[in-house]
């Protein structure tokens, strides 16, 4: 690339960010054979470990954040963790590690906890999205991003 400069990233070169959104990650991994699972994990590891500088980001969504599906150092590369809904103490420890924090159950839609990469866990509220809202279209309209869906 003619505009490449050491220490800069994709934004410096005018490249757009790319997001791979993998919903129901754990359910999918549980459907695979051990060999298939290893192949997928290897590909995800490449995206997570090498992709950030080039503008490729991975977003995983799952009901139960089991660490056995985030091996080989991938887990440590995530910079934003969100836990929504009612989780068990085990679920919170899978999500945030062993922390000295009391988690409270409040029956509020969209409420949970977040760690933005600084190991400080805070209360978090998501916006409520109306039924029928086409968020994929909204995402694609932001800055002309291209949104592809599989599944």
UniProtKB/TrEMBL annotation:
Annotated InterPro entries: P-loop_NTPase
Protein name: FtsK/SpoIIIE family protein
């Amino acid at each position: 690339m003619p505009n490449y400069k050491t220490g800069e990233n994709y934004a410096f070169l005018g490249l757009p960010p790319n997001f791979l959104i993998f919903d129901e990650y754990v359910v999918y991994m549980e459907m695979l054979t051990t060999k298939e699972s290893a192949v997928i994990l290897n590909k995800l590891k490449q995206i997570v470990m090498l992709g950030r500088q080039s503008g490729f980001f991975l977003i995983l969504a799952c009901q139960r954040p089991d660490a056995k599906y985030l091996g080989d150092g991938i887990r440590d590369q995530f910079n934003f963790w969100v836990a929504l809904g009612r989780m068990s103490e085990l679920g919170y420890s899978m999500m945030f590690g062993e922390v000295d924090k009391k988690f409270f159950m409040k029956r509020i839609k969209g409420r949970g906890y977040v760690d933005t990469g600084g190991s400080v866990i805070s209360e978090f509220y998501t916006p409520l999205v109306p039924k029928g809202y086409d968020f994929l279209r909204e995402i694609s309209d932001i800055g002309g991003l291209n949104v592809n869906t599989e599944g």
